[in-house]
């Protein structure tokens, strides 16, 4: 059972209860029991589970409920709040300052995912405008420097290390001094791991700490150890003044839930979760978004952040859309942007209600479909790409040529052109409306969109809406629209929520295709750079395996 399954189980328990006609104390007790069992199976400490169970029961005291109270909402809110409490370390991590050198030192047992996480974090900061670099002070494991070097080159991060120096303290000092002189802002020092020798690990940590004076020391913990993470994080908290934790491999094990709650219980801040082997598989940890995501309520703030960090190139397309134009090349650019965002299943977790819907959807299938669409575009000549697609209707033989050139079928080419036609129609309708939208956005004070959306999500959560009990895991779009200011069809400065709703419905019209991640994410996050609604029907001709 992976973390997602834990969320689904809790979600199902709450939804079953709130939908049942007899919402009585007996049914409520059964729900609390099911949630507790799921948590214990995810290796959450039994004592913590008992506390959670008692707190939920106290919050929803059936004997003293006044008749007018909305039981459903009260129960959803109690479960949400208690889960947040369970994973909240109540400790603020260090925040790096721009324009200053911030030294971050990594420690952890061998194989915990330290070197991988160092590079992920350097890339994360680099994507957010920090000048980041890596120092390899792991002189213990042969090949450690080469591994870091390879990762760093792939992520385009400057690095320092030595094949000959055997003293980790000397390498760390030399590397940090060099990068400080070169005015790097995030200097990440990777140290050697030990195999179950905590004393050695902490001794070396102290020595390097002494030499490089880190602003933050991060311990990397493999979350598959579940609640055993408590002992390690407790020892670490005592040894490191500025200690924070990254929990890795949360993608593979339900025990991640146990590890998160165990670390939280020691009040050591959890800064990030490792969610896979890929460079982009690092998610900032924050209790409320984490629980929202776990319960299928999405993490809009996280989605916005993710999209912004990808620095997607939308300039040409946006310029076109403001003029009411949408060429096939624009479609191709959007398809590539979707590909850059990472596996569809991961994106889905951030979108309210979507993770449940994507249940069973195959990432490989989705990305294959996208690739074939890109191949089709790549087989077109410049004139065709810059066209509005009409030339294919006038000269259908062009389709045959392209199908042959791209190794696809004429039907697939037709589908792509239909998709394009629909989007071009939307672009035309939007035309100048988008310009107004950007103007209005400026007039709104240019506030931080990510913050606004995160606040909105918080509000949704506290209202007990969203994925839980929203009927089949879908969010309550009406209230979401209300919260966003009444929908923006009139170009009033807010995103086009009707298009968003369509996309959340994921190709509903087309019959179980892929939802439009790029457009959705852009609409939510890329207001400055402009939104891009309208690919809801994509995949309508797809495999139909979106909802098995
Ligand atoms: N699935 C998954 N695998 C991960 C994650 N983080 C790291 N890994 C994998 O875990 C393995 C060990 O990672 P390393 O980064 O080499 O571990 P390390 O702690 O630096 O190891 P030493 O240098 O030997 O101390 C590698 O195969 C990584 O790809 C994660 O979040 N999810």
Automatic annotation (TrEMBL):
Gene Ontology molecular functions: 7S RNA binding; endoplasmic reticulum signal peptide binding; GTP binding; GTPase activity
UniProt entry keywords in alphabetical sequence: Cytoplasm, Endoplasmic reticulum, GTP-binding, Hydrolase, Nucleotide-binding, Ribonucleoprotein, RNA-binding, Signal recognition particle
Entry GO terms, CC: cytosol; endoplasmic reticulum; signal recognition particle, endoplasmic reticulum targeting
Principal subcellular localization: cytoplasm
GO biological process: SRP-dependent cotranslational protein targeting to membrane, translocation
Reactions catalysed: GTP + H2O = GDP + phosphate + H(+)
Subunit-level organization: Fungal signal recognition particle consists of a 7S RNA molecule (scR1) and at least six protein subunits: srp72, srp68, srp54, sec65, srp21 and srp14.
Function text: Signal-recognition-particle (SRP) assembly has a crucial role in targeting secretory proteins to the rough endoplasmic reticulum (ER) membrane. SRP is required for the cotranslational protein translocation for ER import and preferentially recognizes strongly hydrophobic signal sequences. It is involved in targeting the nascent chain-ribosome (RNC) complex to the ER and is proposed to participate in the arrest of nascent chain elongation during membrane targeting. SRP54 binds to the signal sequence of presecretory protein when they emerge from the ribosomes.
Name of this protein: Signal recognition particle 54 kDa protein
Organism of provenance: Didymosphaeria variabile
GN (gene name): SRP54
């Amino acid at each position: 059972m992976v973390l997602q399954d834990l969320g689904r189980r809790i979600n199902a328990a709450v939804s079953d209860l709130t939908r049942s006609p007899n919402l009585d104390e007996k049914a409520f007790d059964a729900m609390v029991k099911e949630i507790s069992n799921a948590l214990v199976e995810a290796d959450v400490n039994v004592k913590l589970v008992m506390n959670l169970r008692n707190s939920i029961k106290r919050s929803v005291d059936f004997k003293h409920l006044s008749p007018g109270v909305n039981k459903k909402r009260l129960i959803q809110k109690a479960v949400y709040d208690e889960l947040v409490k369970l994973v909240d370390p109540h400790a603020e991590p260090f925040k790096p300052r721009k324009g200053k050198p911030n030294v971050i030192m990594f420690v952890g047992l061998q194989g915990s995912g330290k070197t991988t996480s160092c590079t992920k974090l350097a890339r994360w900061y680099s994507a957010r405008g920090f000048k980041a670099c890596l120092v390899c002070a792991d002189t213990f494991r042969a090949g450690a420097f080469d591994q870091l070097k390879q990762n760093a080159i792939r992520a385009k991060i400057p690095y320092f290390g030595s094949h000959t120096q055997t003293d980790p303290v000397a390498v760390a000092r030399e590397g940090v001094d060099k990068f400080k002189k070169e005015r790097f802002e995030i200097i990440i020092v990777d140290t050697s791991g030990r195999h179950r020798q905590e004393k050695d690990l902490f001794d070396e940590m102290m020595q390097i700490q002494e030499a490089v004076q880190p602003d933050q020391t991060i311990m990397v913990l493999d979350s598959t150890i579940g609640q055993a993470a408590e002992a390690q994080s407790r020892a670490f908290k005592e040894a490191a003044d500025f200690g924070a934790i990254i929990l890795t491999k949360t993608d593979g094990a339900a025990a991640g839930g146990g590890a998160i709650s165990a670390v939280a219980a020691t009040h050591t801040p959890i800064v990030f979760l490792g969610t896979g082997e890929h460079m982009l598989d690092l998610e900032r940890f924050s209790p409320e978004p984490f629980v929202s995501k776990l319960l299928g309520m999405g993490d809009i703030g996280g989605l916005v952040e993710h999209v912004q960090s990808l620095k997607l190139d939308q300039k040409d397309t946006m310029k076109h859309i403001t003029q009411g134009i949408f060429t096939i090349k624009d479609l191709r650019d959007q398809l590539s942007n979707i590909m850059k965002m990472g596996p569809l299943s991961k994106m889905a977790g951030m979108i309210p209600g979507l993770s449940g819907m994507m249940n069973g959807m195959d990432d490989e299938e989705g990305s294959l479909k996208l690739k074939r669409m890109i191949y089709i575009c790549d087989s077109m000549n410049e004139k065709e790409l810059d066209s509005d697609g009409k030339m294919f209707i006038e000269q259908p033989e062009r389709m045959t040529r392209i199908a042959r050139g791209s190794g696809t079928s004429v039907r697939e080419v037709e589908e792509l052109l239909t998709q394009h036609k629909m989007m071009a129609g939307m672009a035309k309708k939007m035309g100048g409306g988008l310009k107004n939208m950007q103007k209005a956005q400026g007039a709104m004070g240019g506030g931080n969109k990510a913050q606004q959306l995160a606040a909105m999500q918080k509000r949704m959560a506290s209202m007990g809406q969203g994925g839980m009990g929203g009927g089949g895991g879908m969010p309550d779009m009406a209230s979401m629209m209300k919260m966003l200011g009444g929908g923006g069809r009139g170009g009033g400065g807010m995103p086009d929520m009707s298009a968003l709703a369509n996309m959340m419905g994921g190709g509903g019209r087309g019959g179980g295709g892929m939802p439009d991640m790029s457009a959705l994410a852009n609409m939510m996050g890329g207001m400055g750079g402009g939104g891009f609604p309208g690919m809801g029907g994509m995949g309508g001709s797809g495999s139909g395996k979106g909802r098995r």
